[in-house]
Amino acid sequence: MNNKLEIFKKRLIYRAGYRGTKEMDILLSSFVNKYINTLDENQLLELDKFLNFEDEIILNFYHHNIIEQQIDKNSISKIFKRFKI
Asked: Is residue 48 within 8 Å of 5, Cβ to Cβ?
């Protein structure tokens, strides 16, 4: 695997684990660590975009099925919605 892709994956892992709230740190880092090595490059880009959302938007999407317009229905959002810790 190329070095740039590995660095990109490490950056995504870091961003998922240091969100600002412990609940989101646990939820997103568990999700990313489980799937990071199975995602293709397009999915990694989708994940990058997904991690840019504020914690509240992601949490409402996950727990309450409140879908903000910004969250695209793509493979990452579908995998995340089905994810259980």
From this structure: no
